[in-house]
Amino acid sequence: MKKIILITGGSRGIGAATALLAAAEGYAVGVNYRNNRAAADTIVATIRQNGGEAIALKADVSNEQEVVDMFEQVEQILGPLTALVNSAGVVDRHMPLTEMTAGRIRRILDVNVLGTMLCSREAVKRMAPRRSGSIVHISSGASKSGSPFEYIDYAASKGAIDTFTIGLAKEVAKDGIRVNAVRPGFIDTEIHASGGAPDRMEKVVGMVPMGRVGQAGEIAEAILWLLSEKASYTSGALVDVAGGR
Ligand code: NAP
Question: Roughly what angle, to the nearest 10 degrees, separates helices 152-172 and 102-109?
Fold first, then answer.
């Protein structure tokens, strides 16, 4: 059976590393992005140069119509989806709750929670009649730490993803769909600069038992294992990939 995967936020960071590894493991890859077309095109071109199949798909995961259109497009072009990775996610600047605006909190919840739920809904609708599929969410170690004075809105959004993973896994288990989450620790990507903390990796490295931050490819390996038949009895799992933290 042809393996076909959609990766939200597949253009950069953890999503991009997952797209490249998935292609190397024989998946045709839908690379979703929101703004940065050039980054998505680079990942697609790299996959094609290596003999794989990939397309770039522009959609804001917090926009319901754009999500529905993206799922229709990916299946029209690549074929029936067998896997979904929800990697699209955002942080914002470090501050205590008392300084957060409703607009900021809403954006974090819209992208990280609503976006993951909408994409999972569209995937389940398509996978359930085929009685086969695998979904991986990207949560965060922040769901356990709560990220006080940094971004407790973000941490809470990832707590929602943990609970959503557990619930959805039970809801669709009899449909032949497995649902799991990976909880990365501190991973060296551009997300930290987007939250106004480009030097965050140097600041947090002392908190990691292994004494180093992680690389996006190390998260991708866990994701691909969860997606694969090697994880055939694993569903509803929250897998920490965080250097012992
Ligand atoms: P990143 O390097 O900033 O990449 C974010 C990706 O998400 C980009 O492809 C971006 O596309 C896309 N994206 C953002 N908002 C979107 C939207 N509304 N709709 C569609 N795509 C959107 O981030 P990352 O570090 O790889 O993080 C990936 C996931 O891992 C996130 O869920 C994050 O919370 C989680 N995580 C990261 C870390 C870490 O330390 N890096 C730790 C724990 C968990 P554009 O470039 O087009 O905007």
Answer: 30
Q: What is the best residue among 33, 190, 212 to mutate for testing ligand 1's pocket, by most ligand atoms within 8 Å of CB?
A: 33
Domains of the chain plus CATH, in order, are: 4-241 (3.40.50.720)
> For the chain, where are the alpha helices, taking DSSP H only?
13-24, 37-49, 64-77, 102-109, 115-127, 142-145, 152-172, 191-194, 200-204, 216-227
Q: Cβ–Cβ contacts within 10 Å for residue 98, how many?
A: 5
Residue 106 Cα to ligand 1 middle (Å)? 17
Q: How far is CA 36 from CA 2, 10, 43, 236, in A?
A: 28, 11, 12, 32
Strand partners, 183: 240
Element (H, E) at 137: strand 133-138
pTM over 0.85: yes
CA distance 202 to 218: 19
Query: Is 242 a pocket residue for ligand 1 (Cβ < 6 Å)?
Result: no
The tens digit of pLDDT for each residue in 95-119 reads 999 999 999 999 999 999 999 999 9
Closest CA to 140 of 212, 7, 242: 242
Q: Does the beta carbon of 92 lie inside 6 Å of ligand 1?
A: no
CA distances to 102, 105, 146, 149, 226 from 96, rounded to whole Å, are 13, 12, 12, 4, 35
pLDDT per position as a tens digit, 38-87: 999 999 999 999 999 999 999 999 999 999 999 999 999 999 999 999 99
